[in-house]
C-alpha cells in the first residue's frame, strides 16, 4: 500500500457548491486502479460508498486515481544452509522508494514458519524518501525448532515492514535448511581430463541444484588447484548443513575456467559422511589456430597426373605447448573451376578430418571432357583454399595448381628483321638497318585463314553515280575490277556512321593468292590503302586477300572514278564504294571478327601465356628473333604466318609497320625439332617506321582515396585525387589503352571549400595522373571533382559518375553528462551511452557505444564517427540499484566543428549514493612543467545517509596516479587535496582531476618543459680535462633523462667522443 493524496475539485450546478476531496489509502499496488470514497455532504448533495463516483444533485462525478507503486521494499540475506546449533547472521534492508516519508512499524525478522516466532526487530521509525534502514541479527539455529538435531529441516526466514497508516506493507523471505548438529565440508580438487592439476579455477557451490537462487558460496582454487567449503573463510557460518543418515543434503560443485568446458560434481552429506571430496574434470576446448598445405610432387604436373595436397592443422590450446597437431578437425576445400568441359576434381582418400598427425590429404586430378589428347590449354585454378572449420575457421592463403597438356612435337622459327629507312621510296630495298625491340610473332595458319576475306575481280560493287554529282558524270566501273592504279582500302565506321580508314602498315595483312602471280600490290600511304601496281590482262583468276588482325566490323572498299562527260570538261571525282566479298559469311558488306578471333601480338601472347609454346619475341640489338616450341600437326608439319611490327618505335610517337607487305610472311611450314629430317625455318622480314594518322576518343575517370568515388576528410587533411585517362581508336573494337602524357585540368565545382595541390596534371605511362585536394576554408561541405582534356579536336569533360565527390568537414566531438531529472540533478555513473547518426533515408545508424565515467560524463570523437554538419542522436540507458531502468536521449542537428554538449536526462531513476564532488570546487593549476610539484583539491560530500569510507583518486591523462581513503559522516563535506609531481611527459595539454566512486571533475593542464636549464648547458660543459670521454657521455645521457638538457646536447657529446 502507498500513502496517496489526490485532490479533485467538483463544480455543482448552483453557485457555491464546490467540493474538495482528499483521498488517503488508495488500494492501488503497481498499477492504475480505483478507490472507494465515502463523502458526507449537505445542501441536497448525497454521498454513497461507491467506486469512482460521488452522487449529487445535478449529476455523478468520476474520480480517477494515478499510477502508484509500492514505496517500501524489503531485501533479506540469510545463509542457505547451516548445522543445527550454529550461529548464523540474517541481514534485512528496508528501503523507501516513494516520494514521501514513511512512518514505519513492525520492522521484524521473523521465524514463524519455524517455531521461533519473531527473531529480532527495530523500533518504529520514519524512513525518508530514498533512504533505508538495516536490521542485522545473529542467532543460533537451535532456536528455530523444537526438534532434535538428528534430522534436517527447511523453512523460510521472513523480513517484513509496515506503514503505520496501514497504507503499505512488504516482506522478503528466504529458505533456510538446518541440518544435524554435525558440521559439514566439501573439498574441491580440479584436474583436466588427463588428470593434470588445473589452477586458478572459479568454483561455485550450490544447494540441491544449479541456479542463482541456490548459490551458497563461491571461490577460486588459486595456485594449488584445491578449495575447501567449510565455513572457515567462505562466509558459511559454522560449516555446511548435514542431513540425517539415509537423508543426505545434496550439494553441487561447478568448476569453470576460460579455455575449458565447465564441469559439475555432486556431494551428499549425512551423519555418516560429513565431509566429501569432489574432483571436477575440465575438458580443454581445443580449436585450430593455424593451417598449412604442401603439394606433391608440385603445384604443376602433366595433364594426366595427380597432385596430392597435404593439409596440416595445429592448435595452441594443448597443455604441452603451442603449434601442436590437432586431430579429428574437419577441413573444407574450395576453388573455382572455370576450365569448361575439362574439370578439376578431388578426393580425400582417408576422409576430410585430420588424423593423429593433424593432417588430411586431398588428391586432385583432371577429368577430361572427351579425351586427354584433346586438351590443348592448361587446366588450372588460382584460388584454391583449405579451411579448418571447427572453432576459429582458420584458412590457408590462396594457392594455385595446374595440369599442363602435352602439346606434342614442336618446332622453331628464327630470322632477322631489318628496318627500311623512313625516307626511302616504297618498293625499294636500300638503306636498311637492324632495329631492336620490334615485336615478332607467329599465328597458326588456320587462325589466319579464319580472319581472311577474299576480293575477286568482278565482285559486286556499288557504282551508282552519287546524288551530289550532276547527270553529266559517268563511270566505267560496273563491278570490282583489278586494273593498274586501282585503289582498295579497309574501313570501320564510327558511332556517327563515318568511315575510318584502317592502315595497311599495321591493322591488316594484304596478300595475293597463288593464282595471282602477275598481280602486284603496293601500299598507298596517303589513302591509306593498297594499290594495284601491275596486273595480268587475264584477271579471271586474280584475287586479293585481306586478313584482319583485331576484332571489329570491317568493310573493304574500292575507289571509283566519276568523269564529267560535258564537252571540253575534264572534271574527275572519286569516291570509295563498299565491296561485297566472295567469301561466305559476310553480311551487308561487313566482315565481323569476334573478340576470341583477334590475332594481334598481345592476343597471341595472352593466349600462350601459360603454355610451353613461345610464339612471341622482340628483336635483339642485331634484329634477330626466335619463336620456340611452336606446336606441329600430327602429320609432322604445321603452317604459320609470321608477322613483324605492331609496336611503338623508339620515339614513342611512331610505330613499326609492314614495309610494303614485307613485314609478314604466310604459309611458313614448321616441322618438329625432334625429326631428324626437320629443317628449322628462317624468315627474314622488313619493317618501316611510320607516324599513324589516328583519331581517338578519350575517356576520363576521377577517383579519390584508393579508387573510391567518395571520400570525406577534415579541414587541412589532403585527399588523394586520381584521374585515369584511356583512349580508343575511332572505328576500332580494340580495348581502350592508357592515354599517356596528356595534360588534364582539374576543377572543384564548389571551389569555396578547398584547393588542389596542382590544377593541371599529366598522365604517366599507365594513363594516370594524381594530385591532392585539401579543405582549407572555414566553409565546409561537398564538392564534385571534375577533369577536362582538350585533344585539339574535341574537349572531353567528366560527367555524372565519371566525377568523384569530396566531403570536407571540421573535427568535432560530442560530450555530456548523464544525469537524473531531480533538482539539483545527480550524475549517473556507468550509464550505457550509444551514438547514432541520421542516414540518407532519415533512419538512425549506430556508430559507437561507451560507458559513462564515474561522474556520468561521456565523450565521442572523430574516431567514433563524429564530424561537423551531420545530425546525431545520443541515447543513454541506466539501471539503478533498485532495478529501475530509464532511458534518455539528446538530438543534435548539423553540429558545428569543435565540442558540442549533449547532456542526457533520465527520469524515474535514482542516482547511487556515494562521494560527490561539489560543482566548481575543483582547484587545479592550468600550467606546469614536468617534475614540478602541484596541488589539486576538491570538496567531497558524502550523499549517503550514514558514515562511509571510500577512495578518492587523482587521475592524470586517464591513469590513476594517487588515491586516498576518506571517511565522511552522513552529509558531511570536506576538502581533499593531492600533492602531485607532474609526470615526465611531452609538452602538450593533458586532462587531470579527481574521481570518486560516483563522480569526477577534471581540468586541462598545459605541460611545458622549462627550457632555461637546457639553454644553459652545452656539450663543452661535459668535457673531462678538455676531452670528451665515456664519462662525458654517461653524464650527458643522465642529464637528458632527467630533463636537464635536450637530445641535441647529447648528440654533440657523442660526436665529440667519437672524434676523439
Name the features.
10 domains, seven-stranded mixed sheet, Ig-like_fold, Immunoglobulin-like, Invasin/intimin_cell_adhesion, mainly beta, Cell surface glycoprotein, disordered N terminus, 5 helices, nine-stranded antiparallel sheet, 1060 residues
Termini gap:
94 Å
The general outline is elongated
- Count of DSSP E strands? 85
Helix proportion range: under 10%
Q: Approximately how much beta-strand content do the residues carry? A: over 45%
Note poorly predicted spans.
Answer: 1-69, 424-430, 583-587
Nearest-integer average pLDDT: 83
Give the count of structural domains.
10
Number of helices: 5
Q: How large, in whole angstroms, is the Cα Rg?
A: 48 Å
* Biggest pleated-sheet summary: 9 strands, antiparallel
**Helix- and strand-based class?**
mainly beta
Protein name: Cell surface glycoprotein
Describe the SSE topology.
Elements: E1 7-11, E2 18-22, E3 36-37, E4 50-51, E5 53-56, E6 59-62, E7 72-77, E8 81-82, E9 87-96, E10 102-111, E11 117-122, E12 125-127, E13 132-140, E14 153-163, E15 169-178, E16 185-189, E17 191-192, E18 202-207, E19 215-220, E20 226-229, E21 249-256, E22 260-261, E23 263-269, E24 275-278, E25 281-284, E26 290-296, E27 300-302, E28 307-315, E29 324-325, E30 331-334, E31 343-347, E32 359-367, E33 379-388, E34 394-395, E35 399-404, E36 410-420, E37 432-433, E38 439-444, H1 445-450, E39 452-456, E40 460-461, E41 473-474, E42 487-493, E43 499-501, E44 508-512, E45 520-524, E46 529-534, E47 543-548, E48 552-564, E49 572-580, E50 591-593, H2 601-607, E51 616-618, E52 624-631, E53 638-644, E54 647-648, E55 655-658, E56 664-670, E57 681-682, E58 685-690, E59 696-704, E60 710-714, E61 719-729, E62 737-738, E63 743-748, E64 754-756, E65 760-762, E66 768-775, E67 781-790, E68 795-797, E69 804-809, E70 812-820, E71 832-838, E72 844-851, E73 857-860, E74 872-879, E75 885-892, E76 898-901, E77 904-906, E78 915-917, ...
Parallel strand pairs: 8-15, 16-24, 17-25, 27-35, 36-57, 36-58, 60-69, 70-76, 70-77, 79-85
Antiparallel strand pairs: 1-2, 3-4, 5-6, 7-9, 9-13, 10-11, 10-12, 10-14, 14-15, 16-20, 18-19, 18-21, 21-23, 22-25, 26-28, 28-29, 28-32, 30-33, 31-32, 33-34, 33-35, 36-37, 36-52, 38-51, 38-53, 39-47, 40-49, 41-48, 42-43, 42-46, 42-48, 44-47, 45-46, 48-49, 48-50, 53-56, 54-55, 55-58, 59-61, 61-62, ...
Helix pairs in contact: 4-5
Protein name: Cell surface glycoprotein
Organism: Natrinema pellirubrum (strain DSM 15624 / CIP 106293 / JCM 10476 / NCIMB 786 / 157)
InterPro entries: Ig-like_fold, Invasin/intimin_cell_adhesion
